[in-house]
Amino acid sequence: MTTITVMFSKNRNVCFILFxxxxxxxxxxxxxxxxxDDVIEGSETRMICNYNPTTGSTIxxxxxxxxxxxxxxxxxxxxxTKTVQPDYIGIFTLDPNDDRVLVxxxxxxxxxxxxxxxxxxxxxxxxxxxxVTLNVIYIEDPVLSFTTPVNEGDPVALSCDVVSKPxxxxxxxxxxxxxxxxxxxxxxxxADRNDQGSYTCEASNTASTxxxxxxxxxxxxxxxxxxxxxxxxxxxETVVISFDVEARPAANYDWSSQxxxxxxNDPETFTFVASNTIGDVYTVTLNASNKxxxxxxxxQVTVVEKNTQTVKxxxxxxxxxxxxxxxxxxxxxxxxxxxxxxxxxxxxDGNEIDNALVSNTGKTIKGRYTLSVDNDLIITNVEVNDxxxxxxxxxxxxxxxxxxxxTLTVQYLEVPVLNPTDxxxxxxxxxxxxxxxxxxxxAPINMTWMKDCDILDVSDTDKYPQSSTTFIxxxxxxxxxxxxxxxxxxxxxxxxEGKQSNTGKLFLSREDEHKHSTGLLVGMTFVGxxxxxxxxxxxxxxxxxxxxxxxxxxxxxxxNQSGEYTTYIGEMNQGTSHTYEELQxxxxxxxxxxxxx
Length: 597
Prior knowledge:
Layout lengths: L1 E7 L6 E7 L8 E4 L5 E2 L4 E8 L6 E7 L6 E7 L2 E4 L7 E3 L6 E4 L8 E9 L6 E7 L1 E4 L3 E3 L4 E2 L3 E7 L2 E2 L3 E6 L2 E6 L3 E5 L6 E8 L4 E3 L3 E3 L1 E8 L4 E3 L4 E4 L2 E5 L3 E7 L11 E4 L7 E9 L4 E10 L6 E4 L2 E4 L4 E3 L1 E4 L6 E9 L5 E8 L9 E3 L5 E3 L8 E9 L4 E13 L4 E2 L2 E5 L4 E5 L4 E2 L4 E6 L2 E2 L14 E4 L8 E8 L9 E2 L3 E6 L1 H36 L5 E6 L6 E6 L5 E5 L11 E3 L4
Parallel strand pairs: 4-13, 15-24, 25-31, 33-41, 43-51
Antiparallel strand pairs: 1-2, 3-5, 5-10, 6-7, 6-11, 7-8, 9-10, 11-12, 13-17, 14-16, 16-20, 18-19, 18-21, 21-22, 21-23, 24-27, 26-29, 28-30, 30-31, 32-35, 34-39, 36-37, 36-40, 38-39, 40-41, 41-45, 42-44, 44-48, 46-47, 46-49, 49-50, 49-51, 52-53, 52-55, 53-54
């Protein structure tokens, strides 16, 4: 009877079919090498030679390079002895722990080829062998090449060269953005100025992906000169001519003029001083050139009578009672000068209202308005009605005028009024205070409610269902009694600067208690008065018997005796002199008690 056994190896696509004949002896040796995947250059390669039977008195394993049909021994294992041929030492090794394995530590592309494992089991002849193919894959650093600089409109070809196995795929990028992907190793286009930038190429295969460093493509184009409109200038004015020029590479400037001479050292501008003659005309021409081409542009300059005086008024914002400053910056023509500067209150359209407030001629309408050394308007102790527009007007020696206006914003906040000033409320009832929303700038104006000088927490809307101007206290109890205020606040006046109202007092009414106790109180009061009177009479009688009577006297200063007084007892007209020390003075009048007579 014959049994067929199929054995599968994890790392190969083959199986061993071993025929074992019952009661018979196996003949020969079988050899199969595990298939190899592609090996990346520089990595380790392990070739495994599987053979069967694996037992015997002597087994000889020989590895050979059989590339191209020739056989060149590499290494041999005879029993426990392992030998590598001299030409292959340092390249190939035999695994010390596994007789089946031939190792290449650093696999190079030149090691690609066919390798044979031959096994001779002297106890089981004949000899058997198998061959495996080593395929080494690799990719080198790519090289990007193109011509630079180029002129706008020229063709551009980017070429990416790489040595690789298998063939590489290519990705071209500009400034990090993908331009082209695929198997083409070139990328072509027509140059535009916007194509200037940094280019890279990536080459990739199953071995790896490698990229070039960025390389700059320069795209040159001819100068583009933006034309200028003809210019009118004042007599004696310094004129600076400057064209907007775009070019790559940067343009060279060559200026020419009829009637004017360039007086500055800046190659990109032409500067000259106009004459004092009305109607004089100057022609200024720029020739801008670079490696690509040259372009020209011309402008005409005419001297005219111009009113170029300028005035600029700056705004200000200030609180009531502070000082305001409205700035007035002005310019006058060359050859002219300031003659007069006046400040006016202005309407919403910037027109003068009434006479000037203050002038550099020294005239001042209102004492609160003065000029600074820079002719700025100073308003001291600002009032609410100072809010509004202010106009600065200048007049030159040549009789030219200019003006400008701007706004003074006066910040203020009126004091709110709280009503009522006294509230009597029964327990558990509701009390209401109102506080008018005062006028003020800026808006909005908010109300803060206070009790006994402290800010009141009104977050409990059931207890305090208030609006912006109404403060309601529900379910009044003893804790709610006290003094209340409202405080108005805006952006300029907040916190302790806010305006506090008058006070309002909340009293808890106790009328019910009064009604129950009124009768008893009246009766007790009558009895108390009667008993008090009787006790007073009795006490007076007892004291009168037990001690001398209190003597009431009138006092007058003796004119002829310093430090002595005369007392008058009762209705008597006769007086007796005493010193001040003998008298006890009462604070309310000149009546003395218990005076010695």
